## 1
Amino acid sequence: MTALSVTPTPIPGLFVLDLPVHGDNRGWFKENWQREKMVALGLPDFGPVQNNMSYNLDAGVTRGLHAEPWDKLVSLGTGRILGAWVDLRAGSSFGTAFSLEMGPDKAVFVPRGVANGYQALEGNTLYSYLVNDHWSPAARASYTYLNLADETAAITWPIPLAEATISDADAHHPRLADVVPMPPRSTVIVGAGGQLGRALTTLLPDAAALTRARLDLTDPASVDAYPWASVGTIINASAYTAVDDAETGEGRRRAWAVNVQAVARLVEVARRHRATLVHVSSDYVFDGAAPEHPEDEPPSPLGVYGVTKAAADALVATLPQHYVLRTSGVIGEGRNFVRTMAGLAERGIRPAVVVDQVGRPTFATDLAAGIVHLLATGAPAGTYNLTNEGPAASWFEVARRVFELTGHPADAVSPTTTAEFTPCTSTSSVSSSLRRAMVLLLPFRDH
Ligand SMILES: NC(=O)c1ccc[n+]([C@@H]2O[C@H](COP(=O)([O-])OP(=O)(O)OC[C@H]3O[C@@H](n4cnc5c(N)ncnc54)[C@H](OP(=O)(O)O)[C@@H]3O)[C@@H](O)[C@H]2O)c1
């Protein structure tokens, strides 16, 4: 009896497993899927949700080659097969073939997009496979197929195909040159209408950019209706960002609904579909008591907005594949502090702006580029601080700079403190209910 082992093949992500089979005078027993041991040996933790079987009456039954939109673990209950796999994923390994004669003492892990076929070499062959998504007609529509007789894959079937039992459909699949490769799972940007959402949409033109009108995260039906099975990466750019309003009765509810409950929904979706979730958080999860806040510091939020952001960070961090990016003072296309100040300057308003709240304004385009970088490099999952560089500045200093750069006198801006600030002045949108002196995120780790 061999020991359990997991061996790679020429097809990236396709693994052969040797399964120990314990036999005696009654027959045999094997652990066909043993998550803990197999994952420890390098098998992906693929989360099967459905078990299918096909029974093959006679030697010569030949099925395939089908590339499906889920991962599979293929094994036999009885009999023997020649298993054959051809990579039909878009990319440099497209067309790579691998075959293996196998009985119940082997299993093969087949990643999404690799075509799978087999020929029964004995009668009464029971073929079984675990898959990590439920079959549906919509899923079937996304299958990709290859002809069993394809000359490029050149699979040596022990029983010639002319003598084999093949379904009519399987006999008519295309040759490799006519196969449309299976695309990788897609990227979705949620909250695509906001400052960060727009910057991400520009940088990721192939991503599905979903504004609130298309996907409202506070509406469970809207979330459930989206076809998540084909999504590999979810970037959450949505948020309730009205920091002052979040302190009101209605704002508190709305902030919790968008920033926590909606994120819990996305976490559930990402977990179910093994997708990477990118989530954006804020310096407001800290109280500013320390001069700088490293990525692993426990949160200490002072206001409702900060509490909701910290709660979502904890939810997202429960996922194996996640990135939480903490940033500050996002400036992009849309409503933001700089635009508000420019508008006040234009209208001749002389605002009082808080001098005791300090941070680093961050361009939405740079934040978006950081997200793309983390994804493209496959950086370790976790929490990252990401702001623009340069000295920290108070909102008062930033406001004065905006007045200057838009051709207005900087001394039109006067300093105030958070304690003195009264939200009924014309500057209500430029302060916040955060009672803190200074929040500085330590810089982004270099990956
Ligand atoms: N802005 C800052 O200074 C700042 C600072 C630190 C961290 N952050 C964080 O950075 C991220 C991006 O911020 P941002 O400045 O780009 O925000 P933003 O401009 O206010 O955009 C937020 C987007 O979320 C959408 N949204 C709200 N509720 C939604 C829902 N129920 N379903 C789907 N979408 C919904 C909004 O849609 P509508 O346009 O339809 O309302 C809006 O397009 C957020 O996580 C924020 O907390 C921002």
## 2
Amino acid sequence: VSKLELLGHKVGTVKLPTGADVARLGIGCWGIGGPDDNLGLPMGWSTSDDSEARRGLELAYELGANLYDTADVYGHGRSERLLGSLLRQVPRSTVAVTSKVGYFAGTAENAYDPHHIRRQLEQSLRNLRTDYLDVYFLHNANFGSSDRYLEGALTAMQDFKREGLIRSIGMRGPHRYAPERLTTADACDKNVRFRKLFDIVQPEVLTVRYNLLTPDNRGGIFDLAAQHGTVVLLNKPLAQGLLTGKYSASAPPQFGLGDHRSRKRWFTPSALAVLSAEIEPLRQRFGSDGLTRIALRYCLQRFDQSAVLVGFTNAAQIRKNITCLGEILSDSDLSFISSVGERIMHALNAQGGVFLDDAREDRA
Ligand SMILES: NC(=O)c1ccc[n+]([C@@H]2O[C@H](COP(=O)([O-])OP(=O)(O)OC[C@H]3O[C@@H](n4cnc5c(N)ncnc54)[C@H](OP(=O)(O)O)[C@@H]3O)[C@@H](O)[C@H]2O)c1
């Protein structure tokens, strides 16, 4: 039995547009980028450690994970270089690697200046010690005023594909408070904006935040993906650790410099108090140790043409996330979980403001 069959047997596989079959639980590499700032804000994670990251990546591979997601901006190359150390050790054809461009402009006017994208891609490939990406994502939707960098960016992406540097083009899902909404004249409803870009870009892969706290259909994204045969990569399945149940209001986490969570309301004592009270029915039904499992299974069971990207900062988390999955959830489990998720969001929003629409929540 191959390694992929080990994990693939538990979670199923999905075919990327490149034809590669990947296990539907993939590994997110944002966390291992470490502490970082971008666009004038903390944008990284202060909890990671390079040697744990390397061990975690090697363990993930041993346990059968063969989809790894990173971005140029995750630790400004650090995450890509760590993943590159795994790619040096394993046959390239046994893994699928995705990276992204769009949040780091360097000295270019816009991150989607075609010359800049090419430089970033070349650097990403060097960091990753590979000569191609399976998916290259347009990481944000800021194509300048009147989208003036959009056409050039798309031409560049098509060129990269023809040159064999990337095998497919990806785009992120609706993203209400991405910076472009604040600056461009045609900024409009996030779903309208997303739909317009989807039609122009015609991405082969989408990525979208999804977990048990997310509104179920993310503005119809799963229907759209099903219609177009687009693969969707779901990110933040554990709500960045909140859904593991490890936080409490009495001992709120203290994040270090360069950690994006230090500016997020989700991790404040008042939000954690709500979360730990409202999550109790899940603890009672599935056990405290079962929370991570059901958070991941909930995402895995949402849409067949998808893979779930779960992040990590140490090897123990990789082991837990890959080995805890157990059996699939029943329909009654799923509706129970989703009603608890709705109650959690309702209670959080009752604290004031709308959590999911918080501008500060959503810029990475
Ligand atoms: N395309 C996009 O726009 C986009 C946006 C966001 C994310 N992504 C991708 O999706 C991936 C997943 O999202 P994410 O990493 O933000 O969030 P996530 O997967 O929901 O949470 C990951 C974090 O939760 C904690 N954790 C993980 N497993 C755990 C366990 N078993 N027990 C306790 N804590 C655990 C770790 O942080 P601590 O150890 O610090 O607690 C880890 O970094 C990212 O890494 C990235 O590759 C893409």
## 3
Amino acid sequence: MTVRADLAGDGRAVCLVWPDGLRREVGAIWLFDHADDARDPVSGQRGHGALALDGLPRIDAVEIDGPELKARFSPPGLERRIRLDRLRGEGGPSLELWPEPGDVAGPPPLPFQDYLDDDAALRAALSQLARRGLVFLEGAGGDLEAVERVVQRFGFVRETNYGRIFDVRIEPAPGNLAFTGRGLELHTDNPYRDPTPTLQLLHAIVMDDGGGETLFVDGFAHAEALRREVPDAFDILAHEPVRFTYAASSGARWSAQWPILDVDAKGAIRAVRLNHRSLDLALAEAEATERWYGAYLAFYRRLHVPEAALERRLKPGEVVIFDNRRILHGRRALTSGSPRWLKGCYADSDGVAATLARLDRGADQESF
Ligand SMILES: [Fe+2]
């Protein structure tokens, strides 16, 4: 059995039915604009401009030709082709939300050297990062450029006001609570920066025997639970922007405003931004302020229940890459005078998706 294709809506659409029963109606204008032969086969860039769509192309005839749909349009009397698998509309790997660590705590870290040398290991690591929001590597030793070398496999280091690569350790004159021995509640980094860095890397150089455990929590999983169980609180956090501010000792003052939950037009969560140290809420009427704090604390409490956290004492030589839009991180207090020393940097998540696309393509070609 092959796919069935019939014209619908007076040629304004085509109705497709696959042998497994999947049905899809596709608009003629979309087909004309997105057909495989309307776009460059490598870059996917289309050659025609949007004005070519004036007059709303209609389909005169459709035909299934092997793995493709063939459509003849009027105007302008052109024939175009598109692969049927594209029309099924099945996307890439879906997110694995983890309200509790469960399986996420399970897999052993991937070897750092394999990640650097072997594309299959790189693909495994980046795919874990894309699905679960974080991945651990081990065996980087005391290489002070390890985080930079990790990023070079998929993109570029994002330099910020903390430098290209930063140190997390107790400092005599700390410019941020991260550089003291204090415990840190769960947070995302740099919500006062626009754009906010999307990935963070931390590499354990020196660890001590007690304290300083790192905590990770899946913000998307708990935001979805909030949406189900306390929808009013979710709506407030998704729609009311709040300001975050950080002033550096140089006098530079970073400030940006967004809702705690960044939700797209279809309701999907794009990012969580939460950092109580740098929250800079505008003065408002007491009732509105109390309502906002009620929603904020409802979310904050959920994130901080002990069962939600993946808690790890990083071993020297371990590197963690995590999605700063999704995963909140924190740490237990350090012992007094602790030598704990991490190297960190930021990077951009679009390089992960771009590299996975390249590696997936290579893997597909190998399997044929
Ligand atoms: Fe942080």
## 4
Amino acid sequence: VRLSAGAALIDIEGTIGSIAFVRDVLFPYAAKRMEAFVEAHGDEPSVRAVLDEAAHQAGVPAGDRPAIVDALRSWSGMDAKVTPLKTLQGMIWVEGFNDGEIRGDIYPDALAALLRFSRGGVRLYVYSSGSVAAQKLVFGHSVEGDLLHLFGGFFDTTIGSKLEASSYQRIAAKIGEKPERIVFFSDNAAELDAAKLAGMQAVQLARPSDGVTAAGTHAAVATFDGVEIET
Ligand SMILES: [Mg+2]
């Protein structure tokens, strides 16, 4: 696939790295570290505030650490969207990435493409439903080291939903390129529809390893191998 663009906007899960990374690596790591993290940091004001909120939501006494940890574990097992759990998981991941216990998952073909596009003068941006802080952890502590320097900027859903064309228009304005001069890469056909509606070029990553098949509505590739962008 040969494209002409000044900037590439790139999704993470299913595009740069595996969809399974969050489920198979990040969530189990947070669950495994939960008790030790609470023990080590539970008296720090920022952590204590989160534990108090967890106790409140679980209906257990704020001082009952084992009961709080049990509640957190149980929410984690159900993948419950409970704010104190999400906040603690985030804190645990920051520690894990900083300690080198977890590394951001990046497919080799994706890394090669990022380097190739960047060398060719294409400006690179990330758009993921993971927070910008989480995106920076993934790329700052990747299997290939610190890759933050490759990117001109990071966007998450604070700019808008990935399924709405207006989000891509806002991103284009922030990047300072016409939408037609930006190519969006994602595994998700509905996201690509929204980007195309905003005027962007759209390419689907249909990676067999992630169980994604080509939707048929966009240009599709199985990997970034052979994807070239001229500016
Ligand atoms: Mg994705």
